[in-house]
Amino acid sequence: GGGGAGPGTIAAIVTSLGGGPAAVGIVRLSGPDAAAVAGRVFRPARRAAPPWRPRSHFVEYGVALDRDGGVIDEVLVVPMLAPRSYTREDVVELQCHGNDLCLRRVLRACLEAGARLADPAENVSRLISAKSAAAADSALAGIQGGFSALVKSLRSRCIELLTEIEARLDFEDELPPLDLTMLVSKINGMRQEVQDALDTANYDKLLQSGLQVAIIGRPNVGKSSLLNAWSKSERAIVTEIAGTTRDVVEANVSIHGIPITLLDTAGIRETDDIVEKIGEILSWKYSMLHSAYLYNGVERSEAAALGADLIIMTISAVDGWTEDDTKLIEHVLISKKSSGAPVPMVLVINKVDCAPFISGEQFEQFHGVFKKHVQTCAVTGKGISELEKAIIEVRGLEPVPSEGRRWTVNQRQFEQLLRTQQAFTRLESSINEQLPMDFWTIDLREAALALATISGEDISEEAVTYIGA
Ligand code: GDP
Ligand code: ZN
Q1: Which-ligand-closest: CA of 287?
Q2: What is the CATH T-level fold of the domain 10-130, as seen in this structure?
Q3: Which residues sit with their C-beta closer than 6 Å to ligand 1?
Q4: Is the pTM of this model over 0.80?
């Protein structure tokens, strides 16, 4: 496809961007080629021979595709053809998920399909700099078949077991006894599958919210250089905050599509606002108050409130592990203890270009503290991909395996899966405690019902609704 649309067809996001997460967002096409452009972007779920023909004032369900035919989002398309539209020209609305990323990607697809941006003042680069494309992909939760197949399979296995158990209740004498070992292992298997699905929700959350990574360490070990090299290697969006001309305090990179915000202490000294914004960055306090802070232990818990999901402790290979490093790390450990929330830590040994061999004995007492050691040279960027790998491993960020079709569960699916999971757990203990079989069926029914609730939510392929003129 592509091209061909007259200059008179415009595309615009007509719901607001950047506000709270709205349920639905709308991209509106208007102009003589609105239907043609929509036809290139929209693929109806309903089985119909292409090309898609818009029916005025009918809502149709399907997906929006990018230029390469990849699915961007599930959408409802509402054509309002001239003269029955408010502007008296052809209008087609694409209603997609309300988050910014979905909206922007659908808009971009419309632009690639030949529309032009409604307001030239609109900042096209905003579309392109979408933080993480994977987040939008995961908004497709459930529609790509894998998930609904899983739910269906789980449900039919529940019903199978239910049938077997009920048969024993009704015709106890005529049937061989249930193989309990087999039964329990089947339930276990199902529970694991539900758990895997539940895990995708956590991954999904990560895709949305990203990870906060704090880079801490003594002054001059190379924290800022590391952050700069890292963000450059990722062609990241680097936030330059007023008052910090030389150093960057916050940068975004992404690993496996997960947005990572790197926090460094550089420049924080200059501006109070940044202190507010970034909160308790440990190394800031450290460099501000230095050892006095470490000794008197004031504000311990504040340091723990750091809020980072992961801490990168940076040392210099030139200096080796120093007394101050010990103090700093001990302080972090105390804070972690008092806050009760363990934050995983990775040790970065920087400046390996100057002193490549640093003995692990120097920080042996903290051996268990650091999940990984990585050697870097922040000047050349050497070791940064290893650092990324370490973060992935430490945080268990391996993407949910997929053959090009990752799915993640949404909140409602999550709740029903949890209900399923709990039913399986009760069922197992009912079996173990040798409760009567009637109890077993209650739990199995509960699981099957929860699973049915999930499938019942699927929008059917026939979802075509007349909305009136
Ligand atoms: P920070 O105070 O921890 O943020 O340290 P900086 O990033 O400001 O670096 C302090 C000094 O060390 C600067 O002169 C850097 O150029 C230098 N530096 C940082 N990383 C390396 C490295 O890997 N190798 C070498 N040779 N110098 C580095
Ligand atoms: Zn610095």
Answers
A1: 1
A2: Gyrase A; domain 2 (3.30.1360)
A3: 217, 219-225, 266, 350-351, 353-354, 377-379
A4: no
